[in-house]
Structures are given as structure tokens and as C-alpha cells.
Amino acid sequence: MERRRPLDEEFQMPSFRLDNRVALITGGSRGLGLGMALALAHSGADVALVSRGAEELAKAAELIQAAGQRALTIQADVGDIAQIQNLVPQVTAHFGRLDILVNAAGINIRQPFDTFTPEDWDKLISINSKSAFFLCQAAARAMREQGKGKIINVGSIAFDLILPNIALYAVSKNAIRGLTKSLAIELAKDNITVNSISPGRFWTQMADAVFSDPARYESIMSMLPMGRPGIPADLAGATVLFASDAGDYITGQNIFIDGGWSVNAGMKA
Ligand SMILES: NC(=O)c1ccc[n+]([C@@H]2O[C@H](COP(=O)([O-])OP(=O)(O)OC[C@H]3O[C@@H](n4cnc5c(N)ncnc54)[C@H](OP(=O)(O)O)[C@@H]3O)[C@@H](O)[C@H]2O)c1
Fold first, then answer.
1. Which atom of ligand 1 is nearest the CA belonging to 232?
2. For the CA of 53, the nearest atom of ligand 1
3. Is the CB of 126 under 6 A from ligand 1?
4. Is 156 in contact with 198 (CB distance < 8 Å)?
5. Measuring CA to CA, how many Å separate 110 from each of 48, 113, 162, 199, 223?
6. What is the pLDDT along the chain (269 residues), one digit of tens a residue?
7. What ranges do the domains of the chain cover?
8. CATH 3.40.50.720 holds for 16-263
9. How far away, in angstroms, is 200 Cα from ligand 1 center?
10. CB 21 near ligand 1, within 6 Å
């Protein structure tokens, strides 16, 4: 049993800085993943960005470099298990280590439950859930050897609130919820924390069709106590908390970042 520590150690303030740490972020080329990547870079981490689109990756890398950090871009499809299993080795070969994994890549298919096909299931679950599962596995192996690690999975408001026509997305994101909790207890002994960040309504490319319709925009705003959509920078605080020493005793947790949506009992759905 660990003995009580000396008082000066108990009150030593942990750092939010990420200097000399390396992060791997899927979906880091735009939207919320890019916002999280920039939060890590501004706190001192070097960043490996993964997505399919080369042009967006290059632009995202410039932003990381403008924050004073090194960037590695990896063009890969996280729906393909062979490409997934290649990611951690590429990052450790380039930077020599891996301290932080962020699983942010994701897609949505909005349609009635009745119309989903097995092909839709395979595609969406591969990109949103299977990729996170096997990247966590590969990252945990590298982090275990280093004696510490931080994993952040991007969940969704669908952990709690379900909207029509997103049955498959809801399944994929609730897999992330279970994965985060399971790994939190399995990896605690390795000093690896596993948490999730669940965004509410953010006007990114994924949500463009929904927000571009003025009637739907008004309906969404009526549900949000803060009265505005989220922006990628709104994820920065929780990202840095979960990635840094300041979050060393936080694991298996989820933070909704939703402008108050998930606690708004008076919302008009
Ligand atoms: N926007 C919201 O309101 C909202 C709410 C809750 C949760 N989320 C979650 O937040 C995360 C980011 O979403 P976002 O809103 O930022 O969407 P986004 O702007 O569409 O960004 C999605 C990112 O994932 C990448 N990606 C998609 N499919 C991929 C694949 N097969 N292989 C590799 N990369 C892939 C995209 O790059 P490429 O397309 O170039 O590959 C892009 O970098 C997702 O997990 C999403 O479910 C978003």
C-alpha cells in the first residue's frame, strides 16, 4: 500500500504544459480534431495528424508549425485496419515516442433506421469505432513501454441524447463510451489514462447540412442554453486537461462540451 506522501509533494501543482510530448490525432486535418491538435501544440506538444485529404493535412501542419511545434502528416484511411496498424510505428519512427492519442476521425450517416445496410454498418463502425479500438491497442503498447500515456476519445452528445435518423452513429459512439471505460480500468496499472470528450452542436463540415438550413439552425439554437454553436477552440481546455499531468488522476471520464445542451431540461427537441 502506498504511504501518505510528504506534504510538499501532496501540494506540488502539476503542469498543464506538454513540452517534449508527442501526440497522434486522427481526423486532425480539420474541424474538431484540428482544434484539439492546435490546443496540444499551443501547450508544447509535437503532433502527428492523420486523415485522407492531403491538402487539408498540409494546411493543418502549417498551423501546428505556426504554433512553434513539429508536425508530421500521415495520409491514411482509418477505415482500413492495415493502415491503422501502421500509424503508431510511423509516429514512433519519426518522433521517437508517443505520449498522447486522440481518436477524433469520424463520419455520420443520417437516415431512417429501416434503410441502413450491412455495408453502412461496416463502413461507419470501422471508421468511428474499430479504428479507435485498435489504435488504443497499438498506442497503449508504446505508452506502456514509456511508463505513461494519455488517450482521448471523441464521443458525442449521443452518449446521452439521441436524435432521429442517427441509429448507426449512436451505436458507434456508444461503443466509444464502453471502450473508454473498459480501457480506463485495464490500463490504469500502466499509468495510462483514458477519457472522452463529447461535443454537442459544432458547425463543422460534418454538421454543415444541418446548420445550413435556417429552420433547423433556429431549432438547434433553441436547445442550446448558450445560444451558439460550438467552435473547435471550445474543446481546447478539456483536451489539454486530459493530455497533461494536471489530469493524471482522471480516467474513465467523459466531458460533454455542449453549451449546456445535455442538462437543459427545458429544451425543445
Ligand atoms: N460536429 C459536431 O457537431 C460533432 C458533434 C459530436 C461529435 N462529433 C465528433 O467529432 C469528431 C470530428 O468531427 P468534425 O465535426 O470535426 O467533422 P469533420 O469536420 O467532418 O472532420 C472529420 C475528420 O475526420 C477525418 N476522417 C473522416 N473519415 C476518415 C477516414 N476514413 N480516415 C481518416 N480520417 C477520416 C476527416 O478527414 P478526411 O475526410 O480528409 O479523411 C476530418 O479530418 C468526429 O468523431 C465526430 O463524430 C462532432
1. 16
2. 40
3. no
4. yes
5. 30, 9, 12, 17, 20
6. 777 888 888 899 999 999 999 999 999 999 999 999 999 999 999 999 999 999 999 999 999 999 999 999 999 999 999 999 999 999 999 999 999 999 999 999 999 999 999 999 999 999 999 999 999 999 999 999 999 999 999 999 999 998 899 999 999 999 999 999 999 999 999 999 999 999 999 999 999 988 999 999 999 999 999 999 999 999 999 999 999 999 999 999 999 999 999 999 877 55
7. 16-263
8. yes
9. 14
10. no
